[in-house]
Design goal:
Elements lengths: L10 H8 L3 H6 L1 E7 L2 E7 L13 H17 L22 E11 L4 E9 L6 H10 L1 H25 L11 H11 L8 H12 L23 H12 L6
Antiparallel strand pairs: 1-2, 2-3, 3-4
Amino acid sequence: MAKQLSDRPTLEELKDFFGHDRFAEHAGCRIVEGSRDHAVCELDIQDHHRNALGNVMGGAIFTLADFALAIASNTGGNPSVSVSSTIEYLSASKGTCLIATCNADKSGRRLGFYTTDVTDDNVVNSYKELIDWVAKHGPEATKMAGGISENKTAITDLKTLVGTLPEGATSTTVVAYITEAINALSIGDYAKTTEVTTAISTALESYYTKTQVDETFVKKTDIVMATDAEVDAMLTEVFGAQATV
């Protein structure tokens, strides 16, 4: 009896189990993720996948879709096989990688119904494809062009604000140039902010505060107490000989 996978196997378990699908492996199909009733697979588009017209051959697309279906329908349940499959090709692939996503619409005991969507990575490979894309996505292209214009304006405004580096500057960015300019000042030779603050505090210790002496800075040593004789002399001079203390 064939080995069964859990509902949520690891990627390594999926690769080990479905690695025996030799045709899918030979075609280049690879598993991205898989669980019960769900799978995602990819296929890098190579020259041998293309038909005479240069498009990806329908058989290659179908193989990838069928491989994703096999993973979604054989994970977490009894082994199963496809009894009927149909495919519709809506447009030619423009990218470099095909991506198949399979999900169960209804999974019963005897029959299951699944839908697999195959898309590409939407990579534009030529100038003609770019023109075709712009023609098909006019509003998106207009919005993209507007965004580029806004970015150019923003860059111009930034240059005006910040300025450009002086001629001969070795720095490649404004930040690097400012850093070099600061280093050139030898800031390390100057006292640190904490040292300056300490020195100022020490110097102010010999002064009264404004609220202590008439709201002005006055040095303590400048305040000298008058003697009794000096007070008597000042009073005599102002009020006469009898005005003494």
